[in-house]
Backbone:
């Protein structure tokens, strides 16, 4: 498979020419080269290799729309949509089924666009390429490429060139500053996990839907190792300096596991299996040597990232849609599919607060993120909620789309979301100084006054009305005619004889 | 026709069966037993409940206490699940299981135990009220006598209801592929549970019978032809099940521990109907008690 635009491929001679020119003017040392280049910004799913989902310097609510990108859902099914964005160096990039689009983070103005030969629109990552920051994304659907949603005028049993491209699965790296191709590497199977880059950007990790995990050198595209972990690796892979943490179900629908793979050679360091009745879970989010996952038994689990030992289990009221917890220094925050947000102590797992947004299940399907002092929660109903991290109070909410809102990213003072509905594409939000904040406690906090008032208002009139109506009805009906005289109860006979009734 | 098999014409009258299930398999008598109509039964049940201030007051009070207890134990809603607090098992049992599972997550045995005990106490109390009111025309402090008498049967019915629910879930999961089959099975389990067990606590409260006899007599009473037991149970089960299925869209369907006025009204009214239905079943049994066939005498042992 090759990108449709030949101009996007960088001939080695061109790379060499750039280096020569740079050296000639004495700027060679300023070029980011290989692993020395540290990517910044929102480099991948949930912001970084640890998937902590935190942007401490992000804008605070209330939010207002800053810019939008209208982009049809597209893809073979016509309903695939865009990936979550990555951001670096003032550029945000999103991957669609057929295109990769780079925009100015501040204004939303298009910087560049390249074609993509199909494949699930999964989260890309930025990493350290040979000549600067690169964008890495998978391409191709594999052998089970979906057929086009647009009917062809001439049905043909023979796959055309585009189909061939879509059936080859590759990992593609392009320069972030222009979209020129840097390298491409064939992958063993299609990916829905998206791409994870290590903290130094030197290695990218990608999961396959046949259970494979591949580690690829960001500088060259060479495959460092490929490892099989079991079932389909659909969740984003998390990474520490030494390990890749893979969330995947077992082979043939076996129980869910988090697998720690050594980054150096892909060997399995440990495997954590929550139990036989747990079949899926979120990507791991890592903080301070502990990995946190949300599993389909409505729990959040803390695991020692070094050895896979379970540290604690905290319960929620509902399952999560495989969205990872947010990991701050002093609190771990998770959201379930019904929109209840929970804050847990990172050491003990004790619940500190919760807030029930009551958005109906399963309407929280995308990971919330921590922005400044708030947790921002997107919903499939097109809402954004901001919950204060310190108290759990709701401080802002708005309807921002007529369809789902998902895959939040934070960059350059903007919260950027993918949206569906009738206006699919991207939407960026910025702080709105003229907006209004609210302060609403969670409905799960008991208020004796509210409770007693509502009970009294409802019950007292009802008791009076029902009793009066019941007396009238009973008088009209008269005593019941039962089938036979009821036998007297000896106990009651004794009571009556004593005159105590 | 195969050798040794009787033809239609010479079929002998079915004899009463003995053995462990003899009571359950007793032939159904084709007689008019004077069972009240569904409408008149329900109106009588409603009158029994609504004309008793103690019962009408007790419903919101008990609901408030149950709610406070559940919240204290960690339950956060939805409040609307309490709409079936006074429901007959296994309808009430299904609601109990939902609340208990959310209140005691990860402690299935505790949840099931709480469910069985709670439902048994509710059934016994409602039976006591209904029997005392129908039989003696009043509800006073001596309600506890028939309630206590019915407690063993109530526990058995509660236990059986939990078993029926789990069995329905299990079979539904096993046969899972068929769309809607699980729901159909659940409805069937509810209807069967109501039909088979509902009279048992009333029998235990009013007649001097052993537990097994009360249970089998309940089944025999339900099987009397022309009494509309299945239809009545279906009419009760379907709206009740709809409340469970539509819970998120009903007043009190959200998570939260401070129910609104609307939620309280909905839950109180629903429970008034449940208690009325329990009284209705008590009335129906007491109306036909004379006509319920006795179990067959055990067959003499051969030497």
Residues:
């Amino acid at each position: 498979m090759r990108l449709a635009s030949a101009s996007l491929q960088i001939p080695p001679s061109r790379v060499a020419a750039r280096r020569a020119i740079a050296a000639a003017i004495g700027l060679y040392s300023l070029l980011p080269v290989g692993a020395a280049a540290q990517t910044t910004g929102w480099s991948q799913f949930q912001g970084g290799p640890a998937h902590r989902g935190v942007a401490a310097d992000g804008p605070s609510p209330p939010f207002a729309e800053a810019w939008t990108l209208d982009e049809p859902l597209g893809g073979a099914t016509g309903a695939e949509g865009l990936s979550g964005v990555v951001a670096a160096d003032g550029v945000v990039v999103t991957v669609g089924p057929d295109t990769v689009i780079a925009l100015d983070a501040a204004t939303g103005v298009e910087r560049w666009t390249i074609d993509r030969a199909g494949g699930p629109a999964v989260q890309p990552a930025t990493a350290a390429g040979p000549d600067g920051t690169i964008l890495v994304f998978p391409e191709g659907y594999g052998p089970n490429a979906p057929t086009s949603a647009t009917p062809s005028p001439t049905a043909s049993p023979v796959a055309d060139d585009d189909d061939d491209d879509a059936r080859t699965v590759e990992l593609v790296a392009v320069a972030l500053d222009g979209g020129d191709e840097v390298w491409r590497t064939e992958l063993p199977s299609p990916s829905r996990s998206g791409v994870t880059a290590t903290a130094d950007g030197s290695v990218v990790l990608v999961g396959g839907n046949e259970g494979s995990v591949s580690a690829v050198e960001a500088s060259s595209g060479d495959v460092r190792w490929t490892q099989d972990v079991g079932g389909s690796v659909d969740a984003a892979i998390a990474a520490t300096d030494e390990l890749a943490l893979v969330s995947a179900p077992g082979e043939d629908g076996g129980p869910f596991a988090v697998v720690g793979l050594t980054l150096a050679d892909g060997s399995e360091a440990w495997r954590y299996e929550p139990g036989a009745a747990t079949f899926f879970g979120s990507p791991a989010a890592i903080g301070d040597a502990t990995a946190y996952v949300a599993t389909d038994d409505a729990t959040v689990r803390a695991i020692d990232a070094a050895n896979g030992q379970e540290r604690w289990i905290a319960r929620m009221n509902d399952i999560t849609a495989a969205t990872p917890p947010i990991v701050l220094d002093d609190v771990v925050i998770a959201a379930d599919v019904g929109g209840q947000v929970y804050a847990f102590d990172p050491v003990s797992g004790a619940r500190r607060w919760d807030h029930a947004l009551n958005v109906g299940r399963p309407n929280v399907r995308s990971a919330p993120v921590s922005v400044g002092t708030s947790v921002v929660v997107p919903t499939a109903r097109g809402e954004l909620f901001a919950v204060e991290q310190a108290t759990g109070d709701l401080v802002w909410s708005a309807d921002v789309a007529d369809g789902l809102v998902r895959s939040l990213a934070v960059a350059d003072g903007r919260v950027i979301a993918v949206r569906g509905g009738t206006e699919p594409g991207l939407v960026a939000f910025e702080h709105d100084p003229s907006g209004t904040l609210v302060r609403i406690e969670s409905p799960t906090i008991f208020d004796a006054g509210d409770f007693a008032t509502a009970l009294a208002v409802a019950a007292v009139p009802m008791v009076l009305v029902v009793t009066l109506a019941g007396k009238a009805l009973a008088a009209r009906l008269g005593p019941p005619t039962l089938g036979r005289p009821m036998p007297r109860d000896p106990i009651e006979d004794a009571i009556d004889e004593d005159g105590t009734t | 026709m195969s050798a040794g098999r009787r033809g239609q014409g010479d079929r002998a009258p079915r004899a009463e069966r003995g053995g462990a299930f003899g009571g359950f398999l007793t032939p159904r008598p084709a007689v008019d037993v004077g069972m009240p109509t569904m409408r008149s039964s329900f109106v009588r049940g409603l009158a029994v409940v609504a004309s008793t201030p103690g019962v009408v007051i007790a419903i919101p009070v008990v609901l408030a206490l149950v709610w406070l207890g559940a919240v204290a134990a960690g339950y956060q809603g939805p409040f609307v699940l309490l709409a079936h607090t006074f429901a007959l098992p296994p309808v009430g049992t299904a609601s109990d299981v939902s609340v208990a599972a959310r209140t005691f997550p990860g402690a299935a045995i505790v949840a099931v135990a709480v469910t069985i005990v709670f439902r048994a106490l509710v059934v016994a109390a409602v039976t006591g009220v209904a029997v005392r009111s129908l039989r003696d025309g009043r509800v006073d402090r001596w309600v506890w006598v028939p309630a206590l008498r019915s407690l063993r049967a109530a526990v058995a019915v509660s236990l059986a209801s939990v078993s029926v629910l789990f069995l329905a879930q299990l079979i539904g999961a096993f046969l899972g592929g068929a769309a809607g089959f699980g729901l159909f099975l659940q409805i069937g389990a509810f209807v069967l549970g109501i039909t088979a067990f509902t009279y048992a606590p009333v029998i235990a409260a009013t007649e001097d019978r052993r537990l097994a006899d009360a249970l089998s007599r309940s089944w025999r009473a339900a099987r009397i032809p022309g009494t509309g037991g299945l239809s009545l149970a279906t009419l009760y089960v379907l709206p009740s099940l709809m409340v469970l299925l539509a819970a998120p869209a009903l007043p009190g369907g959200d998570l939260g521990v401070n129910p609104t006025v609307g939620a309280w009204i909905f839950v109180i009214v629903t429970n008034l109907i449940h208690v009325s239905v329990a009284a209705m079943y008590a009335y129906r049994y007491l109306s036909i008690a004379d006509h319920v066939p006795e179990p067959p005498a055990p067959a003499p042992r051969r030497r």
